[in-house]
Write a sequence for this structure.
């Protein structure tokens, strides 16, 4: 199929122009997301610098095993989706669907571990920085700050992951209808960029939450 | 197809190795002020995902411009923002 026969919207000179615009648009959006999460990381720097002892006291109450498992899950999910994209570029539609489904299931596993198990345990242990917060005394203030960062950061990341689950499910649905081919798979590429970015954010959140405050 | 999948799989292995290194470093550094060094393998993992999975080096040139711009914005945000806590002198005032 030649370039001239691939459909594209009227405002683009060609199908490849449309594809490049879509990919560039997704990268521009991700650049704004870098700033969005960057502000969160700056808040972490401030909070830990001025309340180090309390901040680290709070950090030692996190569930390292679950956090590490979730990191492995997201890394593997990123790999699965990227493999699916490679299959899409070579016309292997069923393998694309399989890989995207695996990525989706891994994302779902992350959400269950994070919000179904870890958050529930955190609330049960009174780690939510409310009136009955478990850590009292001199480190209490810094510990509260840590857990504010923890709940806010993981909630916002989870929100992004939930959007990612919707997008990946959309890709699976469109792939099952045969919408993609080696010549046209722009949505697969664009969603893959978003999916991997969610992984990137977690790769930074993970040490900030689970590792740095946990000195042996 | 084969080499591409191999590259993706090797990247996955590399990411797991970096994660193991990150965990190892976190067990090794005891000085709280040096703990942020743990972020070094994390940043390397981000670079691996960005280069091999997101293929930041491929595609139109404007993509690389957006990537560079986002890193510059982040450096300014974190760099300038960190100047205050790093340079502020704390004067403790009596509560009386």
């Amino acid at each position: 199929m030649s370039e001239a026969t691939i459909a594209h919207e009227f405002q683009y000179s060609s199908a490849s122009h449309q594809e490049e615009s879509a990919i560039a648009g997704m990268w521009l959006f991700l650049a704004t997301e870098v700033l969005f999460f960057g502000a969160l990381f700056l808040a972490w720097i401030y909070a830990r610098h001025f309340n180090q002892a309390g901040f680290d006291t709070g950090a030692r109450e996190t569930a390292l095993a679950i956090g590490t498992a979730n990191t492995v899950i997201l890394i593997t999910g990123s790999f699965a989706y990227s493999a699916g994209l490679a299959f899409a570029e070579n016309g292997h539609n069923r393998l694309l669907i399989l890989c995207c489904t695996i990525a989706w299931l891994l994302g779902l596993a992350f959400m269950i571990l994070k919000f179904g198990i870890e958050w529930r345990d955190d609330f049960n242990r009174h780690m939510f920085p409310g009136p009955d917060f478990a850590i009292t005394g001199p480190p209490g203030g810094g510990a509260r700050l840590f857990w504010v960062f923890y709940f806010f950061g993981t909630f916002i990341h989870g929100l992004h992951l939930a959007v990612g689950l919707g997008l990946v499910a959309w890709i699976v649905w469109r792939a099952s209808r045969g919408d993609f081919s080696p010549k046209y798979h722009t949505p697969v590429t664009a969603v893959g960029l978003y999916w991997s970015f969610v992984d990137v954010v977690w790769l930074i959140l993970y040490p900030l939450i689970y590792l740095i405050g946990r000195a042996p | 197809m084969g080499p591409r999948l191999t590259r993706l799989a090797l990247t996955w292995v590399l990411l797991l190795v970096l994660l193991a290194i990150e965990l190892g470093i976190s067990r090794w550094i005891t000085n709280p002020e040096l703990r942020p060094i743990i972020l070094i393998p994390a940043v390397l993992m981000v670079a691996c995902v960005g280069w091999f999975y997101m293929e930041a080096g491929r595609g139109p040139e404007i993509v690389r411009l957006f990537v560079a711009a986002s890193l510059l914005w982040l450096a300014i945000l974190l760099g300038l923002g960190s100047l205050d806590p790093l340079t502020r002198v704390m004067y403790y005032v009596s509560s009386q």
In short: Chain B has one domain: 2-87.
